[in-house]
Design brief:
This protein is 37% helix and 27% strand. With 289 residues, the chain is of the alpha/beta class. It has two domains: 2-47 and 128-288, P-loop containing nucleotide triphosphate hydrolases (Rossmann fold), CATH 3.40.50; 58-119, Alpha-Beta Plaits. The strands form two sheets. Strands 3-6-7-2-8-1-9-10-11 form a nine-stranded mixed beta sheet, with helices on both faces. It is elongated. The two termini are 14 Å apart.
Length: 289
């Protein structure tokens, strides 16, 4: 079983659109994992059924029992996150501000405060309109621990792939270099970097590749919208050559990408011309690598 992770150093490069196209081309032979849990949107193109849902708990949050609270104010005084306030003469905890450190519970003279497990999101296992399985998740508003949720999504995707005999897992990773990206890269066999020819595109490509190198994972690259800045495209190609990163393809700026999204299709479904052909060739090249 091989795991292909598609990531980008920055948002807006077309990473998810390209990943969804590969998922469509892989069809029933692949398991797909949307690990961009902070801003998951692959479901917009894959149209999953959300059949299997599971709450995800990570971290803790303080809870004040009003029946045991004597309103001494000590908890509010020592909370360095300003997470405790008084509403209608009751001491309450703001879940978005609370870090779950437990200090307030330790100093409470009446033991009115306890720490409880925090529901930070949901994980889904869905059948898609294409016929493959999509493991995806949604992180709660203001919730932390996205890296742990990514690990859960990947773990479930691997389990499903092993049980169903699928040979490829396609992972849509998060942009950037933060914790969810690190979690997405863990255990990968190939990283496909999607970039665009801009100053920030090249800068963030270099930054995310530094992270990939630490994992010692083979890397390949797709340059999207290559024709909007030929000079920067050439700079990206020179960087790929210097770092021995396989250059898979150049994709032109194409409004059909947007048109496909508005009708809920992948670009390989919507476009029947050269763009579709290039992505099919890219998918075959990735499988060979």
């Amino acid at each position: 079983m091989k795991e292909i992770v598609v990531i980008s150093g920055k948002g807006g490069t077309g990473k998810t659109s390209i990943t969804a196209s590969f998922a469509h081309l892989g069809g029933k032979e692949v398991v797909v994992a949307d690990c961009d849990v902070d801003a998951a949107d692959m479901h917009l193109l894959m149209q999953p059924d959300f059949k299997n849902a599971e709450d995800f708990y990570s971290g803790e949050v303080a809870n004040i029992n009003p029946d045991e609270c004597i309103s001494c104010g000590l908890c509010r005084e020592i909370c360095r996150f300003n997470a405790i306030s008084v509403i209608k003469d009751q001491y309450v905890v703001n879940n978005l501000s609370c870090e779950g450190c437990g200090y307030c519970a330790r100093v409470c003279p009446t033991k009115a405060i306890t720490n409880e497990s925090l529901n930070v999101g949901q994980r889904f296992v869905s059948a898609t309109r294409i016929g493959n399985t999509l493991v995806h998740a949604k992180l709660g508003i203001g919730a932390d621990n996205s890296g742990k949720l990514v690990a859960k999504v990947k773990s479930d995707a691997k389990k499903i792939a092993l049980e169903s005999g699928k040979k490829i897992i396609i992972v849509d990773g998060s942009p950037g270099i933060g914790c969810p990206v690190v979690s997405s890269l863990s255990g990968a066999h190939l990283v496909v970097l999607v970039t665009e020819p801009s100053v920030s595109g090249l800068h963030d490509l270099k930054r995310v590749y530094e992270l990939v190198k630490k994992f010692k994972i083979k890397a390949a690259c797709i340059i999207n919208k290559h024709d909007i800045n030929p000079e920067m495209t050439q700079s990206i190609k020179e960087f790929l050559m210097e770092e021995n990163i396989t250059h898979i393809a150049d994709l032109p700026y194409e409004e059909n990408f947007t048109k496909a999204m508005t009708v809920g299709q992948t670009i390989v479904e919507y476009d029947q011309d050269s763009l579709r052909t290039t992505l099919i060739e890219s998918w075959e090249a990735i499988k060979k690598i």
